[in-house]
Structure formats: C-alpha cells, structure tokens
C-alpha cells in the first residue's frame, strides 16, 4: 500500500490505526512539518512519544532548558522510541525538531517566543511567529498527527484561588476532549491539587497514578499529594491496554498518568511548600496574571530553593520520558 506525504511516497504495510495517522498527516501537511523520523515511525506503527516545548521556552532557564530537552530525547531514543518535540517555528507547526531547531528555540528567551495554548495557535501561525506549545497546544497537534503518548514534567491546573480568579489551565479542558495519554508527575503544588483532580473528573479525564506506593496522585516535587488517585497502574502494559480501550471506544478524551518523582530527586516537603507559599504570594503582590502566572511562580520557586527545585524538575522529566517510552512500546506491541 502506498501512502502519500506531500511530495514523498512511502511504501509501508499500513494497519488500521497508522492509516488513520497518515490520512491525518496529509490533511494537515500544508500547515505541519512532520520530521521524517516521526513520519516513518507513525506510518509503520512504531512507538513515538510527543514532547511539549513551553517547558523549553518558558518553563526552565538557559542552559538547562536545552540540555534537558536533548537528554530527554536521548532517553526516549535509547528505548527505541522516536521523540517528537512539538513547537511553532516561524508560523509552521513542527512535529519533531532537529538539533538546530531545538537550539534556536531554547535560545530565544520568553520575550521572543509565545507560550502557545489552544487560544494562541491561530494568532501565532497567522503572524508567522514562533511558540513553545503547552500541554494543551502539544496535545492538539500530537492528536492531529496520530501520536498517542506524550511525556512532560507537569501539567497546568486549577490555581490556588482558581475558584475565585477563574484561573484554570486550558490543559484540563484539552485533556477532556483530546485522545492523548499525558505522562507527567501530576500538578505542581503551586496549584490546588484536589480541585484540579475534581475538575479533571468533571471533564471526563481518566486519571491514574503509576507505581505509586501510597495509591496517591503525585505532587510533582514530592511523591504524594495526599489525594487518592482513582487508579494506580503497575506496568506499562496495563497503561497501554487502558489507552487502547479508550481509543477503541472512541471516547475522544484523554488520560493523565501521574508518575511519582524518583525518590532520589524528591524535594523536602517543608522546604518546597515554604518556597511555593512565598512564590504564590509574590505573584499576587506583583499583580501577575494570565499566562504569566505559571512561569513566574516556577522561576520564583527555583530561586528560593537555590536551584534545588530545578534539579527535581529535571530528574522527574527524564523519568517520565522513560516511563512514557515504555508505555508507547507496549501500545505499539498491542497494535501489531
Ligand atoms: N508546569 C511545569 N512546568 C511547565 C508548565 C507547567 O511544571 O513548564 C507549562 C506547561 O507547558 C503547561 C503550562 O502546559 O505551563 C500551563 O500553563 P497555564 O497554567 O498558563 O495553562
Ligand atoms: Mn492560567
């Protein structure tokens, strides 16, 4: 069977799911540049893990942002999985970046590059600008090209006073309407974790902890939020079967898997909570609002903890990339 991608014609034994992926790819080929490695993997049903880029452009300082992005991609490749970092570069949607593109994106700095959630995509594309895609933005694009597993550090959530300010991340709504499995360490405790989990339930998002010794959903910097997770998955195969069942049912909603931070990177609970209290109140005092809130608080926490929180952040992202790769492999084995 022959599948067309722009000008290229690739011969491949295409099964049901990958032919859907290729139809999707050609539908959007006028807007989206899919890296050849990603394109070939999707077409031959080999595992791919999507990665977001707001973490590079707004979530981490230089040079750790680039170093981490490259290391995370290498971890994924070491599992025989293709990494697909998603971003907007000069008005083109990119699925899979080469080293040069990653380098450029990481060196732009937040003033030069947009933080792109659903609402920002059309504007940034129309103006031929560049952007780091959030969990919401990345999920939309990954789904367009048929990627099912996505690894990141943490997702957005309901802010601590979100029931008053209405500051609720678009990530949560997107997870409710996009069939993607996001592997993260949950929601930072700069946010309101119990309310975020309630909201995810309302949106119909399947939430599960992964190999949690308490059965609790993780709290990003620490292994437990004290809130019981609806499910606790033990193996990549269990996760893959769950993804497949939701896809087969065509639920069109997402799955959030919360992987506790590895013990050696976990932060001291008191130190991190004090830093967060300080950062959240500093944001309030300075009148930081909208999409600036999350990056501001992240930076402030990192400063107060003298970079310790950044170390935790990097440690957990790498571990999540590893777990997501294992899940993507298990999923691709199920499809064969
Ligand atoms: N949490 C982190 N690091 C990050 C983000 C969240 O620990 O870099 C980024 C992600 O891209 C996430 C976004 O999708 O922030 C959420 O932003 P907001 O709260 O404005 O929706
Ligand atoms: Mn917000």
UniProtKB/TrEMBL annotation:
<keyword id="KW-0456">Lyase</keyword>
<keyword id="KW-0378">Hydrolase</keyword>
<protein>
    <recommendedName>
        <fullName>Pseudouridine-5'-phosphate glycosidase</fullName>
    </recommendedName>
</protein>
<dbReference type="GO" id="GO:0016798">
    <property type="term" value="F:hydrolase activity, acting on glycosyl bonds"/>
</dbReference>
<keyword id="KW-0479">Metal-binding</keyword>
<keyword id="KW-0326">Glycosidase</keyword>
<dbReference type="GO" id="GO:0046872">
    <property type="term" value="F:metal ion binding"/>
</dbReference>
<dbReference type="GO" id="GO:0004730">
    <property type="term" value="F:pseudouridylate synthase activity"/>
</dbReference>
<dbReference type="GO" id="GO:0005737">
    <property type="term" value="C:cytoplasm"/>
</dbReference>
<keyword id="KW-0464">Manganese</keyword>
């Amino acid at each position: 069977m022959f599948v067309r991608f722009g000008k290229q014609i690739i011969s491949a034994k295409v099964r049901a799911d990958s032919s859907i992926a290729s139809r999707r790819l050609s539908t959007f080929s006028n807007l989206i540049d899919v890296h050849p490695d990603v394109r070939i993997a999707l077409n031959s049903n080999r595992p791919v893990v999507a990665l977001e880029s707001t973490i590079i452009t707004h979530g981490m300082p230089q040079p750790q942002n680039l170093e981490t992005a490259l290391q995370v991609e290498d971890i994924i490749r070491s599992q025989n999985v293709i990494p697909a970092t998603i971003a907007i570069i000069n008005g083109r949607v990119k699925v899979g970046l080469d080293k040069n593109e990653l380098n450029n994106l990481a060196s732009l700095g937040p003033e030069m590059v947009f933080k792109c959630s659903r609402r920002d995509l059309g504007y940034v594309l129309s103006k031929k600008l560049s952007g780091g895609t959030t969990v919401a933005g990345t999920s939309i694009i990954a789904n367009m090209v048929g990627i099912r597993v996505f690894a990141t550090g943490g997702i957005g959530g309901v802010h601590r006073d979100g029931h008053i300010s209405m500051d609720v991340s678009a990530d949560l709504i997107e997870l409710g309407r996009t069939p993607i499995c996001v592997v993260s360490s949950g929601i930072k405790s700069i946010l309101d974790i119990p309310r975020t989990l309630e909201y995810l339930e309302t949106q119909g998002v399947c939430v599960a902890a992964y190999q949690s010794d308490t059965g609790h959903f993780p709290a990003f910097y620490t292994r437990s939020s004290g809130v019981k997770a609806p499910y606790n998955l033990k193996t990549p195969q269990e996760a893959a079967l769950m993804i497949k069942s939701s896809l087969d049912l065509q639920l069109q909603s997402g799955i959030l898997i919360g992987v506790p931070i590895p013990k050696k990177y976990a932060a001291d609970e008191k130190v991190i909570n004090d830093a967060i209290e300080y950062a959240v109140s500093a944001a309030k005092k300075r009148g930081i609002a909208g999409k600036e809130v999350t990056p501001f608080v992240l930076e402030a926490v990192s400063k107060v903890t003298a970079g310790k929180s950044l170390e935790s952040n990097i440690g957990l992202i790498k571990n999540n990339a590893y777990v997501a790769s294992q899940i993507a492999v298990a999923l691709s084995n199920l499809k064969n």
